[in-house]
Structures are given as C-alpha cells and as structure tokens.
Write a structure and sequence with these properties.
alpha/beta, Rossmann fold, 8-stranded mixed β-sheet, 23 helices, globular
C-alpha cells in the first residue's frame, strides 16, 4: 500500500479555512494569501510548493502567528479544535514550541550566537515543561544525539558558529522536536545544504516524526524532496492553491498547467537523455489589484478566452484518487500519453528542439584545449594570535589538481562545501602563476604573461558568471553601461560599435534591447542573470566560468537559464566550467564531470559514465543522495549514508582523505585498510574508458 492510499485514522490536527493575508504597500494592498484551505492529519506530511511569492511561507507564518502587526489576517486556523486566529502574542507563545515547532531556512539566524546550543534546547524545555535544569540538560544531550550530532555531551556546550551548516540545521530540528509538538513546520530546511547533508536532514525529519508522532508541513521548491517525503502536495500560485493531490497522483497525473510546467522544468539525475527543459514563460503576477480571471492565464500555453472571465475554484476532479483537486477549467481535457501531458494530442508544453553543437561531432582528443590545469595546488596559512600573528600550520585547499576543458565542452565541478571548488576557480580567474603546477588558458601559460596588454588580451577569453546576479550587477548603472563596461575595458572606444554590440547581446540572451536604459532593479531574478551572462559574453570569450549560476532561481526560471546556456554554447562554440551543488543540473548541462573531495579530484570522466557507473565510494554516496522527482523511485532506491567526521583540511599526511567516512573501508581486511590510511591514491583509469578515480580498490 502506498502512502497516498493510507487514509487518516483520526480527525485533522490542523484545519485551515479560507485563510487570507494582506499587507499594505505604496502600490496598494498586497493580497499575499487568498483563500487557502487544507487539513493536516497526525503523522502525515503536507508539502506546499510553488514559485517565490506564491504565498507558501506567508501561509506558514500565519499558522505560527509570526506575521507582523500590520498584516491583515482573516479566515480560520484551528489546532485540535482551538482557534488560533485572534490569540495575542502571549497566548501564541504558549502554543509555539509546545504544540507547533518550526524549522527555518537559515539555521544561523534562528540560533542565538551568545548561548551554547545545549542552553538553547534547555530553554525550550524549561519554558514549556517547567523541567528541572539538570533533567533538561540531559534531555538536550539526548536530542542532539538523536539528530546525529557526534559526541553530543561535549558538543552541547559549543556555540552555533562552531558548527557546520548541516549541523546547525540538526540543532534547529532538535529544538523544534524538544517538546514533542503535534506539528512541525519546515520552511525550506534544506535549500542551502549540500546534497549529502540534505539527505541526512531529511532522514532526521522523518526520525523526528517517528519519535514524536508529529505531522509535518514541508515548504520547498525542490520537487525531488517532495517526492521522497510528502503524503499530499498543495501547489500554490499567486497566493492561492491551484492543485492539491496525493503525492503519487500529482506526479503521475498533474492536471493544472502550472504544475505540469513545474515538473517539466526540473532536470532529472536519473535520465541520461538530455532534451531541453520546458520553462514556464513570463513571471508571476504582482498581487496588487489582480484582474479578473485565472492569474496564470498570461503564462499558460493552453489558455482560452474564457479563462479571463473569472478565477476558477479549486474543485475535485471526477474519478480522481484521494480527492485530487485543481483550479483549471481545462483540467478535464488533459491526458497523459506516457511522455507528455497533452490536450487534443498536443503537449501542453511543447519540448524545444535540441540545439546542435557542431564541435561535439569532432572527437574530444582532436579539439583544442581552452583550459589545462596540471598539478595545481593552493595552501593558505593557518595563523594564531590576536596582535602578533604566527603561522601554526597550513590549510590545503587545492591539492595536485589535473583537468582540462576542450573547445565546445562543459565540465561540471562538483563536491560538498569546503571541497575546494571555489579555490580552484579563483586560481584560474586570478591569471597568476599558481603556488604549484601550471595553468594554461587558450594555450597560453599564465606564468608567461608579461605586461597589462598581454593579460588584457587573455582576460577577454576568460569570463565569469556569479551565483547572485544582483550582487554582481552595479545597481547604480543602467544595463547599457553594465554591458558596455567590459567592451571599454578591453579598448573598444567607438560609441556606435558599443551600442550595436549591447543591442546584439541583449537580443542574444532573450531580452528586449529597448530595455537597456533600465537599472537592474527593474528586472526579475532570471532576467538579471541573463544580463550577467550577456556581460560575460561581451568580449567573445572562449571559456565562461559559471559559479552556481542557477541556484538562487526558481525552478521555472532556472530551466530557461539552463536552456539559454546550452543554446549559447551551440551558437557561439563556448566552453563552460560549471560549478554547482545541484547534481541534477550538472548532469543535464555537462559533457564531463569532476568530483572533488577536500581539495582533490577523486573521480573524473564523461558525465553519463560517472553518473551511470560511479566508481569512487564518495561519488557513489553523492549520487545516491540526490532526490528524484518520482515518488515510486524515491521509495525504492537505496541511499549510501556517510557517517564519521570530516578530516581536517590542515592534515597533509599520507593516505586517502575519505577514509574516515568511507563505507568501502569498513569491508576491507587489515592489510587493505593499512594501504588506505598509509598511501595516497592516484587518479587512474581502467581499460579504454575516459573515466578515472582515486581509489585503491575501484
């Protein structure tokens, strides 16, 4: 029996009816939430999904009673027959923490930096249970151990800044479950975490439900996470639910064009065929004075004139499983043909054609290299002392890295936070001789550069796109000036030529050239990233370094940017060095992939070979942790859980750096284990395959 077939045995813990939240603004009243209804039953998980601004987090904050005083909240929120709306802050404080626990997106902002993590758990226990301090401290240690904090008794006395991001999130979960709440609300709890840490946090959330019997509201934009943890899914758009269904039915039979678009925009790590993603065109509406009709109509590929008459109600679909409801007048026309959701035999979202990359037809070894790293290493001094600093060691950020990128090729560089990805990028972008090894860009050894003019010419061939487009674009400059600046920096002085090039760049990335006189704040997040890409292309580079270029974007906008990057690569013959923590994106966009662990590359090869047959134990664990947007797959797949402590990056001793967490190491005999701890493995291949890994026994 699947999760969606298991019916609730008791009445709902939480009932939300006709919830509406509005805020005053200079433009008028913002109707952030407009008529949300749902029931949450004991032990069940409700996932709320949608783009930024759809009302997900505002709904959660309304349930918790954490909205500002100027917010207008109407409707009904009932917790175990107790009406929460209308309670003052003192009354809600008795509910929060005791009956309702919340896990926020940023754990560091949720924890008080001046108190130890143990003290903060003890505080939650003493406030709600009048517990003796010694008993509360013992319970705090038990909770930290339960959520997977190693050496819990000692670490309970540590402060938040002494923990990693994943460990801080575990502490927040421990606080949320401290008083055995009836409901836990998790607002994007895994967004900023590595995929391995994300998998561990999701396991901890499931454990907290098992231990406390709590119901869970999971707010997320990651549909893979939803597939693995949810029983029911509520899809929100423009402040209101547009589809609600059991998780299996929603993923196999989505009936709202918006939901179909979200699922079609998600790259899948389990699919080798890389056809273009299907983005949802346009942007969500401003929630001020919405016009009549369906708010999704301007973006809907199958809208008809009557969609603009009135906003459709969320209605149960006839013959649907588990009360599948949808707010679309054409839902009854949608059929699934085994590959696409269709109306009258035509896909709701036609799949774009696959861009042709002419250079890809030439064997890799026959294409020139645009980037070559040979034995590159980077260490940072480890200093001690407040005034008179002295060096007490070194941090080995990058160790003996070898890789190359050929013309028209994308190399994905992946690994957990702190593995050395960013340090490697900085070594490349500095255009300075590395501490050890050599770096060649477009055939030029950076150690041989002499003079500013030579460096400037090479700089034209190497450009970068950053993670946060708003942080990378000067808000005081118009888009025209932003795109003209790199042209002027490389010596272009003809104003007419610059203007023509700016128009060409705007058109190239899918923006209206007439909007180049606007400032970055006038554009959406996806449009700002397109501007950043246009700026990187201004000097006709050979290699573009992309540092998490889509991680800050909604899934629908992310799909458009990924498609754009693939189209530009095909059209301009570009090469990319693509760094990301989302391995589904990496598989979709990359030709080859390099996996880093604590400064070393532990596996490298063609993307389909590495993802289809990972050899190194770390790569195997990394790939097993990636959520797949398919509930059936998520329920049946096996994950490799990494246990043990990360070794210190200051340790330069021999041996494999992964040995403390390696599941393979535990299965070896004593002699083999001695080789793992005493001999550093080299990056080697086997047979005639391009794939190489750094493991003695793979």
């Amino acid at each position: 029996m699947t999760r969606s077939e298991t019916g609730p045995a008791t009445g709902p813990l939480l009932s939300v009816r006709n919830l509406a939240v509005s805020f005053p603004s200079e433009a008028g009243r913002v109707d952030a939430v407009r008529g949300v209804d749902f029931d949450l039953f004991p032990g069940r998980t409700l996932a709320i999904v949608g783009e930024s601004g759809s009302g997900k987090s505002v709904t959660a904050m309304a349930v918790m009673g954490l909205l500002p005083e100027y917010a207008s909240v109407t409707g009904s929120i009932t917790l175990s027959s107790r009406q929460l709306l209308g309670l003052d802050d003192r009354q809600m404080s008795q509910v929060r923490g005791r009956n309702l626990g919340m896990i926020f997106q940023d754990p560091l902002s949720s924890l008080t930096p001046i108190f130890s993590v143990g003290q903060q758990i003890v505080e939650a226990l003493e406030i709600h249970q009048n517990m003796d301090h010694d008993v509360a401290w013992k319970r705090a240690v038990e909770l930290l151990d339960l959520v997977g904090i190693p050496h819990a008794a000692e670490r309970a006395r540590s402060f938040p800044h002494e923990f990693s991001g994943g460990m801080r999130q575990r502490v927040v979960i421990a606080i949320a479950m401290a008083n055995d709440p009836q409901i836990i609300i998790a607002d994007e709890p895994t967004t900023a975490l590595d995929v391995t840490v994300q998998a561990q946090i999701l396991d901890v959330l499931r454990l907290s439900q098992t231990e406390t019997g709590a119901a869970l509201i999971m707010i997320t934009h990651d549909l893979g996470v939803v597939a693995g943890i949810a029983d029911e899914v509520l899809v929100m758009y423009a402040g209101r639910p547009v589809e609600r269904a059991p998780v299996d039915d929603l993923f196999t039979r989505p009936l709202m064009p918006y939901t179909i678009g979200l699922l079609g925009a998600v790259p899948r790590v389990d699919v080798a065929q890389r056809r273009p993603l299907v983005p949802i065109q346009g942007n969500p509406p401003l929630l001020v004075d919405l016009p009549p009709g369906c708010p999704f109509q301007p973006r809907c590929p199958v809208s008809v004139p009557r969609c603009g008459d009135r906003e459709p109600d969320l209605a149960v679909v006839p013959d649907a499983v588990g009360g599948h409801s949808v707010a679309c007048i054409r839902a009854h026309e949608i059929r699934y043909d085994g590959r696409n959701s269709c109306i009258d035999g035509r896909p709701v979202y036609p799949v774009p054609p696959v861009p042709d990359v002419p250079g890809a037809r030439v064997p890799r070894e026959q294409r020139p290299a645009v980037l070559q790293l040979t034995g590159v290493s980077k260490t940072f001094p480890l200093l001690k002392g407040a005034i008179l600093k002295r060096r007490v060691g070194s941090v080995y950020a990058v160790s003996n890295v070898d890789l190359d990128i050929r013309e028209g090729e994308t190399l994905g560089l992946v690994g957990e936070s702190g593995c050395g990805k960013t340090s490697t990028l900085l070594e490349i972008m500095n255009l300075r001789p590395p501490q050890h090894g050599s770096i060649r860009i477009a055939g030029v050894d950076v150690a041989q550069l002499r003079g500013r003019d030579t460096e400037r010419q090479l700089r034209r061939k190497l450009q970068m796109v950053f993670q946060d487009p708003m942080g990378a674009l000067d808000p005081r400059m118009t888009v025209f000036d932003i795109l003209a600046e790199p042209l002027q920096a490389v010596g272009e002085a003809d104003r007419a030529a610059i203007a023509a090039r700016v128009d060409e760049l705007m058109d190239l990335v899918g923006l209206n050239p007439e909007h180049s006189d606007r400032f970055p704040t006038a554009f959406s997040g996806g449009q700002r990233q397109r501007i950043a890409i246009a700026r990187a292309l201004a000097t006709n580079p050979s290699l573009v370094v992309l540092d998490e270029p889509v991680s800050a974007l909604d899934v629908s906008i992310q799909a458009g940017v990924i498609n754009l990057l693939n189209e530009l690569k095909a059209k301009l013959g570009l090469s990319y060095l693509f760094v990301a923590h989302d391995l589904s994106v990496v598989r979709h966009i990359s030709d080859r992939v390099a996996v880093m662990y604590l400064g070393r590359i532990v596996e490298i090869g063609a993307v389909d070979e590495v993802f289809g047959g990972p050899q190194h134990p770390y790569t195997q664990a990394l790939l097993s942790a990636i959520p797949v947007p398919d509930p059936m797959v998520e329920r049946t797949r096996e994950r490799i859980v990494l246990r043990g402590e990360l070794p210190s990056p200051t340790d330069a001793g021999p041996g494999c750096r992964f040995v403390s967490r390696c599941p393979l190491y535990l299965t070896l005999d004593v002699a083999q284990q001695a080789r793992c701890t005493g001999e550093t493995p080299e990056l080697t291949g086997r047979g005639d395959r391009d794939q190489q890994n750094a493991c003695h026994f793979r």
